[in-house]
Amino acid sequence: MRPRQPRRVSDAGLDLCQPPGTGGIPAGAIVYSKDGELPVEYLCPGDRIITRDRGLATLRAVTWRRARMRRIRFPARVMGQLRPIRDTALPGCQGVLIRDWRAKALYGAEQAIIPAARLVDGTCVTDEGVAEWTLFTLKFDSPHIVYADGLELAAASAMTAAAES
Fold first, then answer.
1. Shortest CA distance to 33 belongs to which of 56, 52, 54, 53?
2. Relative to the CA of 19, which of 9, 79, 116, 156 has its CA 20 to 30 Å away?
3. SS3 84
């Protein structure tokens, strides 16, 4: 089952990135790979990454960039057991797969990919304002859901990323 891709803008006035999908995995985040848990900055094309939707997928490209974006803080286990595995921050526009009561409550679906900023509740998941980031984009043959610090994050295909450039 493909997760629903909501297109609406946050009604809480959160600063969502335009165009959508311009997030990334922050430096230092731990990504699950065939070779174990590795910081995202250690990944190289050809590495086999563990994905939620296809098991192992071959990484085709890794790019990085500096950006100023909203910083969304996720305390350890706020999204469920070991999700995330530690306190984690994501850029507000990074797509996060939700597949619990949040998906039902927000979108009436079993699962959905939504910007991290949309999960801000002001109590557990918080907006820490704009921050300077070093962000990594993982590119595959097709879109996948990868595990970073235990969170399930959207990763684009190399074809989609090339078309958006």
1. 56
2. 79
3. coil
First to last CA, the chain: 28
Is the pLDDT confidence value at 34 over 60?
A: yes
Per-residue pLDDT band at 55 (split at 50, 70, 90): very high
- Regarding pTM above 0.85, the answer is no
Q: How far apart are CA 139 and CA 110, in angstroms?
A: 26
- 159-163-165 Cα angle (round to 5): 120
Q: How far apart are CA 96 and CA 89, in angstroms?
A: 12
Tokens 């595995």 locate to: 85
Do 138 and 91 touch, CB atoms closer than 8 A? no
**Dist CA 4 CA 31 (whole Å):** 24
